[in-house]
């Protein structure tokens, strides 16, 4: 039976991040993926590496470390990334109150950010409408990659540069005595990492039986390419996003904003909508998103949800082409409290699941932590 140092189940970003770090430490790696290519959350997301969405302390530090590792990998693999930073634009006084309070408190907590006047914000992104703009929270830290390109090109790079073996079309049905078993592949490894995303039912379901794990469905859209030379600049978020990420819970001004949103925007609350916009290195804008929770993911998308997202975006954006070229939804594993879960179901086996919408942001940092704990990397 073929043998490798580390076998990884799942070629989404969590599996690929582990594969990269193991491979560059000089050990042999095999990645086993059930589909012809990874088709899960990792190809369906915004491609945002978004440290500002992480609460102060361990999670923010993890995101920053992950960002460093992303840059090392992207540089080595010669894959493009837009290091544009982010703007949270405020069009209401209560939104500005949160952004401004955060900008005062956050630097001492390790965030690099500043509150900008409307003119300063527009000078960073003329995609923002100036009418009604009260100010914006600027952070230089956020990156955008094209998730389609990462999921397709990173395996090729890992194979060519480090000889990582990829076994696509192999659904792993069983892991026993450090052997990975699928109908068309068997291999043994010194250690195995399971990075199976929102499939927490096939391998080691006993780890999650009483864990309150569920799923989150998000609706997303992409415009056609913008005219050559036009640039969004920083990725954009708006007032609703202050209410979404736990980062901003340190702000006393958040309570009033939450109350106003609940009162004025019940449909946005109902579908968990907050609006973000990022630009792909190839020019298109990605626009989302909504959050619907539950194990039974509705396979049918709701036009109403996309309409709410787009109408909100159009209120504040000044973009040459807003026609939507693609619509889709994605699903990630969701835990009510923990942003990720790791468990050790058998000797030498780790299951690693990001259980919130931050897998692009933390994947490389999380992989480093896991592999250190396992003694696989220094
Ligand atoms: C719409 C959307 C937008 C998002 N935006 C962002 C963002 O901008 N920034 C951010 O940080 N995060 C974002 N996220 C979250 C992020 O995409 C996920 O946290 C991350 O992609 C999870 O990666 P993963 O590798 O664990 O899962 P996946 O990408 O789902 O990969 C798991 C892989 O494992 C394979 N697999 C499962 N079981 C088996 C088996 N038994 N045998 C073989 N293969 C198996 C699957 O086929 C799949 O390819 C977003 C998520 C969604 C859905």
Quick overview:
32% of the residues lie in helices and 25% in strands.
Structure description:
It is built from 11 helices and 19 strands. By secondary structure, it is α+β, with helices and mostly antiparallel strands. The strands form 3 sheets. Strands 4, 5, 6, 12, 13, 14, 15, 16 and 17 form a 9-stranded mixed sheet that branches. Strands 1, 2, 8, 9, 10, 11, 18 and 19 form an 8-stranded mixed sheet that branches. Helix 1 runs parallel beside helix 6 (147-162), helix 1 (13-24) crosses helix 11 (359-373) and helix 3 crosses helix 11 (359-373). Bound molecules: flavin-adenine dinucleotide. Residues 9-15, 32-35, 38-42, 44-48, 50, 171-172, 195-199, 202-203, 218, 220, 289, 330-332, 354, 357-361 line the site of flavin-adenine dinucleotide.
Task: Set out the fold topology.
Layout: E1 3-9, H1 13-24, E2 29-32, H2 41-44, E3 48-49, H3 58-77, E4 86-90, H4 93-105, E5 114-116, H5 118-124, E6 135-139, E7 143-144, H6 147-162, E8 165-167, E9 174-176, E10 179-182, E11 185-194, E12 214-223, E13 235-237, H7 239-242, H8 254-264, H9 266-270, E14 276-279, E15 285-288, E16 292-293, H10 303-316, E17 324-334, E18 340-346, E19 349-354, H11 359-373
Helix pairs in contact: 1-6, 1-11, 3-11
Residues 9-15, 32-35, 38-42, 44-48, 50, 171-172, 195-199, 202-203, 218, 220, 289, 330-332, 354, 357-361 line the site of flavin-adenine dinucleotide.
